[in-house]
Write a structure and sequence with these properties.
Elements (H helix, E strand, L loop, with lengths): L19 E6 L2 E6 L10 H16 L5 E6 L35 H21 L5 E5 L2 E3 L1 H7 L3 E5 L3 E3 L2 H5 L9 H4 L2 H10 L3 E2 H6 L5 E3 L4 H12 L4 H17 L2 H23 L8 H11 L4
Helix pairs in contact: 2-10
Bound molecules: zinc ion.
The site of zinc ion (ZN) has 4 residues, from helix 10.
């Protein structure tokens, strides 16, 4: 196995059966990541639960708008690289036409898995036919960025910050869904990955990565009000509008740029594996969190 830190499927211990909660208020579906104990880090259990919740919201004609948020202090601290519920070696029913990764050797294991659960899923979510709003508080780190970036609108609380530390920590040029250069001006995107430092919501708003920053205690109400403005609008019109702007990004080369990056990302995973015996370069969730806190002057 190329990823020595991945527990065998039999040893996985989920702390919840509901890693995502789903409620509908008015004509807005609220998808809330629900692993607050682990700052909503994303294991496959959560990935497929998010996908199922998006599917549910798409299927419900009453739902016009979808909000994606996270319970607890942080929106999402990224991919699960260290909880007892880390389920990298577990088989799930794929949502794309891809083979199971679990029995694949060496670099093929992660490459196959991440085509499905990261790149493939994120593209699938970005293209769903209803407007989506990311509601971001606290940390939105690495894999957490991908979840916010697939949404059409991002609202952040004033305590939110954005960070991609995988370059600095793992020698990997940014997370799998590489929207960095589309979300930020190129020079800022380079800074973002090269230094892997926290970007405040206020600074992110200046570059257009965030639509609106509001006080933490007003976040949910603000998002609900925003969603409420879209609820009476024409369903097809909402879909066409997001598609039109998604096409602009495609014309700017988003898909090709992401594919190019994805292969570099996996070249770096493979290099880590060859040099350290671990595709993440031996970095787990604890080491990542400690380094990030130290860099931010918190410990
Ligand atoms: Zn990866």
């Amino acid at each position: 196995m190329d990823d020595l830190s991945a527990p065998p499927a039999a040893n996985i211990q989920y702390e919840t059966d509901d890693p995502v909660t789903y409620t509908v208020e008015g004509r807005t579906a609220w998808l809330m990541m629900n692993r607050p104990k682990y700052h909503n880090v994303q294991n496959s259990q959560m990935t497929y639960a998010i996908d199922a919740a998006f599917q549910r919201a798409v299927n419900d004609d009453n739902v016009k708008v979808i909000v994606l948020g996270g319970e607890g202090k942080h929106f999402s601290a990224g991919h699960d690289i260290g909880t007892p519920g880390r389920d990298v070696a577990k088989t799930f029913d794929r949502k794309l036409l891809l083979a199971d990764h679990v029995n694949k050797p060496a670099a093929e294991f992660l490459y196959t898995r991440e085509q499905e659960v990261y790149l493939g899923m994120c593209r699938r979510w970005r293209e769903l036919p209803k407007p989506t709003i990311a509601m971001v508080q606290g940390g939105c780190i690495a894999g957490g960025l991908m979840l916010a970036w697939v949404c059409d609108v991002i609202v952040a609380s004033d305590d939110a910050f954005f960070q991609d530390p995988v370059g600095r920590m793992m020698g990997i040029p940014g997370v799998e869904y590489s929207a960095h250069g589309f979300e930020l001006p190129p020079r800022i995107a380079k800074e973002f990955i090269l230094f892997g430092e926290r970007m405040s919501a206020e600074r992110a708003e200046r570059f257009g990565m965030v639509n609106k920053v509001v006080p933490r205690e007003q976040l949910r109400d603000f998002v609900a009000e925003m969603a409420g403005k879209l609820e009476p609008q024409n369903r097809l019109g909402l879909w066409l509008t997001k598609q039109a702007l998604n096409h602009v990004e495609e014309l700017r080369g988003k898909r090709t740029a992401m594919d190019t990056h994805f292969h570099m990302h996996h070249f770096a995973h493979a290099q880590n594996d060859l040099t350290t015996g671990n595709a993440l370069g031996g970095v787990d969730g604890k080491a990542m969190a400690a380094a990030n806190k130290k860099q931010a002057g918190e410990g």
